[in-house]
Automatic annotation (TrEMBL):
The keyword Iron applies. It catalyses: heme b + 2 H(+) = protoporphyrin IX + Fe(2+). It is found in: Cell envelope. PROSITE patterns: DYP_PEROXIDASE, TAT. Residues 74-217 form the Dyp-type peroxidase N-terminal domain. It comes from the Bacteria. Involved in the recovery of exogenous heme iron. Extracts iron from heme while preserving the protoporphyrin ring intact. Its main location: other. Belongs to the DyP-type peroxidase family. Keywords: Heme, Iron, Lyase, Metal-binding, Oxidoreductase, Peroxidase, Signal. This is Deferrochelatase. The gene is efeB. Its EC number is 1.11.1.-. Binds 1 heme b (iron(II)-protoporphyrin IX) group non-covalently per subunit. It comes from Streptomyces gulbargensis.
Length: 425
């Protein structure tokens, strides 16, 4: 049995136990693809105040589900989307360099391993004392400037070259980029916050927070079976994600071992593009249902393409309506972003929704914390975004407010910390 088969069995077991629920804003319900495994060790003791081993409260399957820290890939990439998320970027402190960065990644990795197993590290705050791991994942990445700060510019991948400017961008540099990036996800809000505080405390004097964003998805177990979730516009979002059982999935999403360029430390890793995309909901909600569906190119009720079928049906981009026009309009979001319209470009979308209250202009400060994964952003995100930028019908209803690009190395082997092959190689 292969590594992927083992991971798929773990995910299937998780589904049977009812721990996945909805797949989150990205509609991502997929196995670990050879990366971090998932297991559910449910405490005995029933419900209604019963206790598990050692007198601890009994956990539901949601609370008991554990994602493995060690693996070929870091957790949080192909892990099913969680209910709560935090994104953070850090800048190394003045005077901190490669030595301090290595010590920081060593601390972060030890903390992540303990928390993902449901264990309390030394000096714990006690926030999640009665909670299990709750599918917690903590993922680490490096921004372009990290390599300057650590004297490793010769080992900086070309894939970290700055993203091009897009006409729809309204980027706030204070909430963009950063030396280090951390993604936290969990199916319990307290567990996610607990991890957030632990990561921030571990940074100590080595790094300081550049920006932080908080997100959410549908709660685990909220639906009778896993479903592609809806975004804050009410649209089913993420139907077209590549699937791990597709033969070219790994090639599209993960950096292979022995890749040209001498970046062996990135083997098993991926590149994350992170964008805070505000949705102009007041304007969107003024559109009729018919107009909303034409903007997206899919039915709002079930996510099926306007050309017919079910959510998973292929788009029939050549189908014409009674008026002789394409049923899926030429500027529909689904048409423009389809891989077949972009030379096969594909990325694995795994976002969180956000709502940060009301903006000064009285409109909702809400939208999508867009996160996409690919082996090469110049072949994944960039060509699709360029095409969307030139004529996507959705563009008038969204605003890209921050952006970041991060190299996320492969998972740490037993006894290693994340990024060790870069920092000590």
């Amino acid at each position: 049995m292969t590594e992927r088969d083992n991971d798929t069995l773990e995910i299937s077991r998780r589904r049977l136990l009812g721990t996945v629920g909805a797949a989150g804003a990205a509609g991502l319900v997929i196995g670990a693809a050879g990366g971090a495994g998932v297991s559910a060790a449910v405490s005995d003791g029933g419900s209604g105040g019963a206790s598990g081993p050692g007198g601890a409260p009994a956990l539901s399957t949601v609370g008991a589900t554990e994602v493995m820290f060690h693996g070929k890939h870091q957790a949080g990439i192909t892990t099913p989307s969680q209910s709560r998320g935090h994104l953070m970027a850090f800048d190394l402190a003045p005077g901190a360099g490669r030595k301090e960065a290595a010590a920081l990644l060593r601390r972060w990795s030890a903390t992540a391993k303990a928390l993902m197993a449901g264990e309390a590290p030394a000096g714990d705050t006690g926030v999640a004392l009665d909670a299990g791991p709750s599918s917690l994942t903590i993922t680490f990445g490096f921004g372009r400037t990290f390599f300057d700060r650590t004297g490793l510019t010769a080992r900086r991948p070309a894939e970290l070259d700055p993203l091009p400017a897009f006409s729809s961008d309204a980027l706030d540099p204070r909430r963009s980029e950063g030396d280090l990036w951390v993604q936290i996800g969990a199916d319990d809000a307290l567990v996610a916050f607990h991890a957030l505080r632990a990561v921030q405390k571990d940074a100590g004097d080595a790094a300081r927070v550049r920006w932080q964003m908080n997100g959410f998805n549908r709660s685990a177990g909220a639906t009778a079976k896993p479903m592609t979730a809806r975004n804050l516009m009410g649209q089913i979002d993420g139907t077209g994600n590549p699937k791990p059982d597709e033969p070219d999935f790994d090639r599209r999403i993960f950096v292979p071992a022995g890749a040209p360029g001498g970046q062996e430390w990135m083997a098993g890793g991926s590149y994350a593009v992170v964008r805070r995309i505000r949705m102009l909901l007041d304007d969107w909600e003024k559109l009729s249902l018919e107009k909303q569906e034409k903007v997206i190119g899919r039915r709002k009720s079930d996510g099926a393409p306007l050309s017919g079928g079910t959510e998973t049906s292929e788009l029939d981009l050549n189908k014409l309506g009674p008026d002789g026009r394409p049923v899926i309009p030429d500027n529909a979001h689904a048409r423009i972003s389809a891989p077949e319209q972009n030379g096969g470009a594909a990325m694995l979308r795994r976002p969180f929704s956000f709502h940060d209250g009301i903006a000064p202009d009285g409109t909702p400060d809400a939208g999508l914390l867009f996160i996409c994964w690919q082996a090469d952003p110049l072949r994944g995100f960039v060509p699709v975004q360029r095409k969307l930028d030139r004529g996507d019908a959705l563009s008038p209803f969204i605003r890209h407010e921050s952006s970041g690009l991060y190299a996320v190395p492969g998972g740490a082997a037993e006894g290693e910390y994340v990024g060790q092959r870069l920092l000590e190689g």
